[in-house]
Amino acid sequence: MVALQESTQIFETVLNDLAPDECQQIVDILKSFVHPDQTEVESSLVRRLTGRSFSRAEKIKLELHSLLGYFERRRELLDDSLTASEVAALLGTSRQTSHDRLKNKTLLGVLDRGAYRFPSWQFDAEGPDGVIEGFPEVLRALNMSDFAKLNWLVRSNPILDGLTPIAALKQGLKERVIQEALGVGVL
């Protein structure tokens, strides 16, 4: 019972920090565990991969743990990000220009609590249009959600000699990063 109370408190803390649409995503996922549609094939796969079956309560606990980790990662990635107004001040443009560049895929922004947040590491005072050389081309090559792009860009990549794609761009490895970006999600 104590574990349930602790989990509930953690869950409430996370939910209070989320936008309504993010809360709804969590509710929808948790509903899928209350009314599971798991097929026998899926259950068999889980047993083969893990060597055991999971109760409904265990599945809910695992899913909640995964969601909490996801949102913690999201907060970490957006921690040093800028608002559209801050980007406008940085680049000497209007706030609308930030949104236009987002639509044109020359800036990366992630919708967070109803407003776009722009990771600060993409900006370079010496780069073309105030961003890292090659960054817009990489954004256009990535065929995934903005949050997935953000996550990919700051993760160490073995194909790029262990560098993050952002670090590789800063070292002038634009073509290698673009080629890797084009291959993301392609089997």
The fraction of residues in strands falls at 5-15%
Mean of residue pLDDT?
A: 86
Whole-number count of domains: 2
Helix count, DSSP H or I runs of 4 or more residues: 10
Number of E-type strands: 3
Question: What's the helix-strand series?
Answer: HHHHEHHEEHHHH
Question: Judging from the principal axes of the Cα atoms, what is the shape?
Answer: globular
**Share in helix:** 55-70%
- Structural class by sheet pairing and helices: mainly alpha
Spatial gap, N to C terminus: 45 Å
Q: Please give the order of strands in the largest beta sheet.
A: 1-3-2
How large, in whole angstroms, is the Cα Rg?
20 Å
- Could you list the spans in which at least 5 consecutive residues all have pLDDT below 50? none
Instruction: Report the sheet with the most strands, covering strand number, pairing sense and barrel closure.
Output: 3 strands, antiparallel
How is this fold's topology laid out?
Layout: H1 2-16, H2 20-34, H3 40-50, H4 56-78, E1 81-82, H5 84-91, H6 95-103, E2 110-112, E3 115-119, H7 135-141, H8 146-153, H9 165-170, H10 174-183
Antiparallel strand pairs: 1-3, 2-3
Helix pairs in contact: 2-4, 5-6, 7-10
Defining traits:
mainly alpha, globular, 60% helix, 2 domains, single chain
Summarize the structure.
It is built from ten helices and three strands; from the N terminus they run ααααβααββαααα.
Task: Explain what you see.
By secondary structure, this protein is mainly α. It has 2 domains: 2-78, no CATH class; 81-183, no CATH class. Helices cover 60% and strands 5% of the residues. It contains 10 helices and 3 strands. It has helices at residues 2-16, 20-34, 40-50, 56-78, 84-91, 95-103, 135-141, 146-153, 165-170, 174-183; strands at residues 81-82, 110-112, 115-119. A 3-stranded antiparallel sheet has the order 1-3-2. Helix 2 (20-34) runs antiparallel to helix 4 (56-78) and helix 7 (135-141) packs parallel to helix 10 (174-183). The longest helix has 23 residues, at 56-78. The chain is globular, with a radius of gyration of 20 Å.
